[in-house]
Design brief:
The protein is α/β, with parallel strands linked by helices. The chain has one domain: Rossmann fold, CATH 3.40.50. 44% of the residues lie in helices and 20% in strands. The chain is built from seven helices and seven strands, in the order βαβααβαβββααβα. The chain has helices at residues 16-31, 52-59, 67-84, 102-111, 148-153, 157-166, 184-208; strands at residues 2-7, 36-41, 88-94, 118-121, 124-127, 133-139, 171-177. Strands 2-1-3-6-7 form a five-stranded parallel beta sheet, sandwiched between helices. Strands 4-5 form a two-stranded antiparallel sheet. Helix 1 (16-31) links the parallel strand 1 and strand 2 (36-41). Helix 2 (52-59) crosses helix 3 (67-84). The protein is globular and about 60 Å long. The termini are close together. The mean pLDDT is 94.
């Protein structure tokens, strides 16, 4: 079993999403002790944002890639190969300005490659990366999940559900810690609830294995 552990928060040790992602990996390894873990900290090791060179290296703009295209292609190839080789993905994702961190978006843009994670058939797009389990540990300063207005504002969980579905991954579990900026008591309760949900989600996977 190969697990890819990803963090995207810029807050370092003060990050709740990092805390929860680490606890998810630890909980998973309790029931799957033979699991090997790769770790990617996107706040430290951030791929360049998607650009013309990264795109050109994939669509064959010219027979001989430029030096910049070759360099960007190497980054994309490393990231998509790591992703495809993983059976389980654990991602810590804070909410920044109603969406995911740009570092995480840059990583996802490198994964979205025709012929690797998706293709287009006669009936439309087909995901090619199915069969993986994904745990997404979400942290939010406010509460967005309980009202229509809040749900309309967040483009974090909704985006990740859409993009992983586009890749063919349907086994995606979201754990939210909300209201983290709404006082110490609310924050503590939110983290405790998330920790319980992590345990239940991972134990559920162990029972289904």
């Amino acid at each position: 079993m190969k697990l890819l552990h990803i963090d995207s928060s810029i807050l370092g040790t003060g990050s709740v999403s990092r805390q929860l992602s680490a606890e998810t990996v630890a909980e998973f390894r309790k029931s799957h002790p033979d699991t090997t873990v790769d770790y990617l900290d996107l706040a430290v090791d951030t791929p360049n944002h998607f650009n013309a060179d990264a795109l050109g290296s994939k669509i064959g703009v010219q027979a001989q890639p430029t030096e910049a295209q070759a360099r960007e292609n190497a980054v994309s190839e490393k990231l998509v190969s790591q992703f495809l080789a993983s059976d389980v993905i654990v991602i810590g994702v804070p909410l920044y300005n109603f969406t995911v961190p740009t570092q995480l978006k840059a990583w996802i843009d490198r994964l979205a490659q025709p012929g690797r994670t998706f293709k287009y058939g006669e009936k439309g797009p087909v995901g090619l990366a199915g069969g993986k389990k994904v745990f997404v540990l979400i942290s939010r300063g406010g509460v967005y999940s309980t009202t229509e207005g809040g749900q309309a504002l967040e483009h974090q969980e909704s985006y990740l559900k859409a993009i992983f579905g586009f890749f063919g991954i349907t086994d995606v579990k979201f754990v939210r810690a909300e209201g983290l900026a709404m006082g110490d008591a609310v924050k503590a309760a939110a983290i405790a609830t998330a920790q319980k949900q992590i345990e239940e989600a991972v134990q559920g996977e162990a029972l289904a294995a």
